[in-house]
Amino acid sequence: MTQNTIAFQGVPGAYSNLACRAAYPAMQTLPCASFEDMFAAVHEGRARLAMVPIENSVAGRVADIHHLLPESGLHIIAEHFQRVNHQLLGLKGTTLAEIKTAASHIQALSQCRNNLRALGIRPVVHADTAGAAAEVAQKGDRSMAAIASTLAAETYGLDILKGDMEDAEHNTTRFVVMAKEPIDPDPAKGPIVTSFVFRVRSVPAALYKALGGFATNGVNITKLESYILDGHFSSAQFYADIDGHPDQRGVRLALEELSFFSREVRILGVYPASPFRQGQG
Asked: Which residues are designated catalytic?
């Protein structure tokens, strides 16, 4: 049973739940209260996979996740891009004019900022989208709404008062799928993504030199983000995604050069690129 289970952070009806259904429709889903609980479910054998949100095309990076990924002890084996359509949900029979507040995860609220302002609805931060929908259903206050998915509306018996609340049509969340064991995909069968973290030495131009090997070896960096590791703001770790497999000559040489100028390079996963990427060129 656990071999056919995928864990996600949130409650039933969350967008991560939706992503699990879209990417692995034959698998059972396991809701987890926190990212740490989700990783633990895989380590303890209660789930085979974990669906982890990384970033959103409108709201940016998912808070804390880049700190948690390297410490998770899991490996990225796939990626999934989920189109996010936010719905304004209220109690059955409620009208849009009755709504005064809308609760949701801070990422969802930021993705609907302009539409909420135009409707004169005050945003209220909640731990997660589906949890906000559950609370609206539980409290029975006709002035309260939630920003959540159609799945959340079905799960908690709410009406969709207004659909497509997101401000941007391209609103998409990128997820990575993590497992206990890494995979080694064949580059001959299609494009590959390699994800890793690294820390550069505290010397002038260290980042410039560390990344120079990717330019000279023709390796495309598709994502690069930094985040502070300590309270002194003196040590930064970088998260990167690149096109290619570490066994390919250009990637191998670029990673060797990176290692020379870095204190630590840790590969988080080597996995097939999502078909979604080919459609964005």
From this structure: 173, 175
